[in-house]
Amino acid sequence: MAYKYLVIVESPAKAKTIEKYLGRNYKVVASVGHIRDLPKSKMGIDFENNYEPHYISIRGKGDIIKGLKAAAKKADKVYLAADPDREGEAIAWHLSHLLGLDINDKNRVVFNEITKEAVKAAFKEPRAINLDLVDAQQARRVLDRIVGYSISPILWRKVKKGLSAGRVQSVALKIIIDREQEIRKFVPEEYWSIDGNFQKGKKKFKANFWGLDGKKKKLPNPAAVKEVTDRIDGKEYEVAKVEKKERKRNPALPFTTSSLQQEAARKLNFRTRKTMMVAQQLYEGIALGKQGTVGLITYMRTDSTRLADSAKAEAAQFIEETYGKEYSAHGGRKAKNAQGAQDAHEAIRPSSVLRTPDELKQYLDKDQLKLYTLIWSRMVASLMTPAVLDTMKVTLKQNGVIFIANGSKIKFKGFMQVYVEGRDDGKEDKENILPDMAEGDTVLAVDIEPKQHFTQPPARFSEATLIRTLEENGVGRPSTYAPTLETIQRRYYVKLTNKRFEPTELGEIVNGLIVEFFPRIVDVHFTASMEGDLDHVEEGKEKWIEVIDQFYQPFEKELAIAEEKIEKIQIKDEPAGFDCDICGHPMVIKLGKYGKFYACSNFPDCRNTKPIVKEIGVTCPVCHEGQVIERKSKKNRIFYGCSRYPDCEFTSWDKPIGRNCPKCNEYLVEKKVKGGKQVVCINGDYEENVQK
To answer: How far is CA 279 from CA 118, 348, 349, 368, in A?
Structure first.
């Protein structure tokens, strides 16, 4: 079919969606990401010629490039419609060079959402390629190449092959290891609390010890507790003070890339990579029956919380019609973007708030629906009125002993009608309604219970909390978080244990070397400052070559010192404590790409290896011979299987506990449920109370 205009985008899915909007004069094709890059086999940077990058066509892209050139020759004009960010601008620039297009021609088309209206409007206002944006991407690429391709070979020679260092990944690793060192140094301190259950009429409520004789008192030991309990005389307490206030709670702002990744981890249990993959699908377009293919959300790489006026107006009308006028905040609250935020395009939002999750349910798979619901709810809630809570603080006194009870009650739900932001501790905000009380009333203590506690070390980072920490420190940008977390796990520098990052021995060795010999690389402030310099390049305030040169001059000296002074590190094999069942030589524990494993010490003559497994102390419920062991799936998820595999193929996602069901005699397993663990029968006809 003849066409006048050729449009090039990155993804086939995006091409398919856009072509439907533009009509028969347009042909839309995909470059499938970048078509040129630095070579993998060498540095690819000319240090003697102003750090000139040497780009080559990416291996495997020959047929795609051939097709693009052929299609471009047939067109009167070529439009470049890659994503609206630095990477997209760089892809457009590389395509321009490859196809011999005029770099000053107005052929660059950008849109923040893939809807018919947005795409058609964008094609009415094409612009020239923004070379400042290209330079910012090029500077980041060259900088990351210099760091990675300079330090990594040193690690290969001095530690082991397959290791890597990176400008953002090394900072992320150091943050995780610094937290681990805090945990190791942590010394628990004892403290006590005194909790009271009280009653006013027929209603019971809780209150906590606050102090003695009008002063707040800490309870560090049993002696301090005894001093309080010795003062308590009888069960009657006087209501000394009642404070009632009305408190407003504002909704969370619409999603940025970082806040979406964090909230999807908290609420949906999505890994960062999965969140971005599903968001990409929603952005590029979903087939909605007779409506055709529609991009359901705006661009998902952003650090702005701004919403377009048209989106706010549409949402305000929807909120008024659906929930009532009293729920509409008429444009929502204004908030400053985080320091360093680009604000090039909007927050992540639905392309139309009128496409409710319920209406789209039939067109989306379960993961797409979950993420779309999250994005839709957050945007709608951000434009709703604050929630109003009635709070009540009651002070109880007896013989100088003071207990305080705090209660809250939702007076007006406001935005909470639609959405409430998740918390990193996994807890939910709950109402705590106290009985009506007035000063001078008497309440009865049902029981007073002293409890011993110990201070807890800081928690290890989850994906959500690590992303938040990187963002707060200005390290990386929205597009870097997912690949950074993936890289440090793939290199086996860290592992996820109970959804928390734990450094490995290898990670600590690599971090130690980088901290000692390349301190600037892992300095949070230096890395954040470098991000600022890259932003200045994008804004046209700095030249990218000067930014690279300021970094490289001292870095070159650090490299020379490291090459000379880092001694070869031998990661010693640990004795396994048993012999090889093939040749009889002692087995050892080796550190490999994916962690530790058993191997024969007679390697390479004997190549016997075995995985290191963890027995849980339960006999296999199927064959009754082997032991149940803890295994890991390819996605690093723990499951349970028989040690006699493949002779016995028993597997279970839930942990067998070694007891049988009193009803049917099948085996019982321990399931993770909300609030704790529960023992259930595999047939589902028996369960025990949840253990918190």
So the answer is: 18, 10, 11, 8
Q: Which long-range contacts (CB under 8 A, 24 or more apart) does 219-226 make?
A: 219/191, 219/192, 219/193, 219/194, 219/450, 220/189, 220/190, 220/191, 220/192, 221/190, 221/192, 222/192, 222/452, 224/192, 225/192, 225/194, 225/450
Task: Return all residues near 364 (Cβ < 8 A) that are at least 6 apart.
Answer: 286, 372
Query: Is the C-alpha dihedral spanning 621, 622, 627, 632 positive or negative?
Result: negative
SS3 430: coil
User: Of 436, 407, 448, 438, which is closest to residue 202 (Cα–Cα)?
Assistant: 436
- Angstrom distances, CA of residue 96 to CA of 34, 39, 103, 131, 433: 12, 19, 7, 12, 65
Q: Do 489 and 533 contact (CB within 8 A), yes or no?
A: no
* Residue that is last in its domain, among 400, 425, 454: 454
Sign of CA pseudo-dihedral 271, 276, 281, 285: positive
If phi > 0 it is left, if psi is from -120 to 50 it is alpha, else beta; for residue 47 that is alpha
pLDDT digits (tens, 9 = 90+) for 474-525: 888 878 899 999 999 988 899 888 889 999 888 999 999 999 999 999 999 9
Q: In this structure, are residues 507 and 173 in contact, taking their beta carbons and an 8 Å threshold?
A: yes
For the segment 26-43, what is each residue's pLDDT rounded down to a tens digit?
Answer: 999 999 999 999 999 999
Domain boundary pick from 416, 438, 454: 454
Is residue 570 helix, strand or coil?
A: coil
Give the separation between CA 645 and CA 521, rounded to whole angstroms: 46
The reported pTM is 0.81
Sign of CA dihedral 303, 306, 310, 313: positive
| Tokens found for residue 454 | 């110990």
Q: How many domains does the chain fold into?
A: 5
Residue 634 belongs to what domain range? 574-681
446 and 467 in a common domain? no
**Residues carrying an active site annotation:** 299
Cα–Cα dist 384/388, whole Å: 12
Residue 611 lies in a domain: yes
Same domain assignment for residues 442 and 429: yes
Q: How far apart (Å, rounded) are the C-alpha atoms in residues 516 and 552? A: 18
CA distance 64 to 69: 9
3-state secondary structure of 19: helix
Nearest-angstrom CA–CA distance, 176 and 316: 43
> Any idea how long the chain is?
692
Residue that has been written with the tokens 């709950």 in this structure: 430
